[in-house]
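pinned: reference chain
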Amino acid sequence: MNLVLSRSRRVATKSKSAPLIQFNDLPPEILAQILDFATDPDSGTFPNQMRTLELCTVCSLWRSVILTHPRFWTYLHISIRGTTRATDRNSVISARLVAHFERWFTRAGDLHLELYVDFGEGRLFEPTEIFHEYLVRRNSRWRLLRFEGMLSAPLETLLGVASQASKQQPCWPNLRHFIIENSRMSRGTASGYPISLNNGTEGGAVNSLQQSAPMLQNCALVSPLTQSPFSYLLHYPVASLTSFQTDGLGLYINLRLVIHHLPPLHNSEPEEPPYSVFDALEGRRT
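pinned: its structure tokens
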């Protein structure tokens, strides 16, 4: 027993005399990864960028490490407020946005990117060709695309451009999350700007994603819809799709199609289902 105690004392004494490695003495690349974990970048769909900015205020070293680390520049949340007096305001704002995107995402190196654009209330801005071209043809590293308040016409234009660009190979090969949130729009009125999931042209909202984003995992169309989304998912390669969310009036849910053709879905969440859901339930009994 005495021998064991003496050995324990020697080990304790030796450990106290060993130099302690200070946190800020770690190599910058290791320190950057630790600070990255502190913001829980993988805990949800979006990194907590506000928490990252708070860490920047701790000391100049942390600020330098965070802002020079590519991970910080992989995510951008931008809100469009107000407008410009220019007659071609849509072209002006689109050009400014693309220039800002390029300056920001260039610092991310070759990492996957996440973009969240809030178009604001009202019809203040409709993106033009340069906006769509940047998202589709000039950058293929998107992991997440999220648009709030985006009108139906620009959205369908974006997906149409993506579908055309994906004839040879997918333009968004790394896209995992595609989210449309038009919660500010009043449902059931002309101001709702409903999204057509298959508008008669080549593609349609859901079908164009089939070509453009074959690795999609989370698709959310939280907006007034003109048709049921599930009928257009029949031929969708759903091996990677685990979450599909919809919201809006006029939504007809075919539960048999969901059950038999979407087995990988962990979360299929249509909000406010109409009475027709009971028709689908009755259909299952036959």
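why pinned: The mean pLDDT is 68. The first helix runs from residue 2 to 17.
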